[in-house]
Amino acid sequence: MTTKINWPEFTARKAREVSDPKIRAFYESQKLDPDTPLEEVPFVAMDFETTGLNPDEHEIISIGLVPFDLHRIYLRQTQEWFVQPKRQLTHDSVAIHRITHSQLQSAPDLSEVLGPLLEALNGRIAVVHFRYIERDFLFNAVERLTGEQLMFPMIDTMEIEDRYHRQAFGTRFKQLLRGRKESVRLADSRERYSLPRYQLHSAHIDALATAELLQAQVHHHFESGARLRDIWS
Question: What would the pLDDT profile of 151-189 be if each residue is shown by its tens digit?
Fold first, then answer.
């Protein structure tokens, strides 16, 4: 679960290198101590709804953020933005995320949302379910808008579930008998911890579902002295 990137060193270096004020302020806010106990870490669950799965071709159309820690979810601080895409939505994508053309008609451009988004992430560790969506889409969008590169540590609940459930010996034996892998999708992962079933594919609901999942995962799989370095990537 550990990463080869030295995140404190990386973010400090990027804060010196970037020229865009918003991106520099974000990197400067990343006062990251890998030895912080998970009990003391302020988190923010983040979810994107997108027009597809390829960050080189598709776009972010909704962003949901839910601040939390291991004991409490701060629902009153939940934030959600709809974002105006450059291209028309396809019927296939609408069928998945259920965001309609009318909902996006008066939505702001991502350039208007980027500042508030980075401010909301300041001082918190982002938690996502399958980090390659949020990391890659945000990286591409920021590079397109500002010419800067934005990357920061995330905790990936799908990666945790893969490590502690799918790769467990008992699970691997069942998979061998059944001939298929156990699902680590968000809804299926939550079900294993008896968490309530939500209507997913809404950015703020998916973010809430991810926050609750991390709380359950840490409770079930991590020792009380677990540190941030044990879980971020």
Answer: 999 999 999 999 998 765 444 435 544 556 789 999 999
Task: Specify the CATH number for the domain of residue 37.
Answer: 3.30.420.10
Please count the structural domains in the chain: 1
Give the global pTM.
0.92
> What is the rounded CA–CA span in Å between residue 35 and residue 139?
26
AA letter at 158: M
pLDDT per position as a tens digit, 47-67: 999 999 999 999 999 999 999
Kindly provide the residue ranges of all beta strands, DSSP E only, lying in the chain, ordered along the sequence: 43-50, 60-68, 79-82, 125-128, 154-156
Residue 81 lies in a domain: yes
In-domain check, residue 183: no
Instruction: Please provide residue 218's backbone torsions phi and psi, each rounded to the nearest 5 degrees.
Output: -65, -40
What totals of helices (H) and strands (E) does the chain contain, helices first?
10, 5
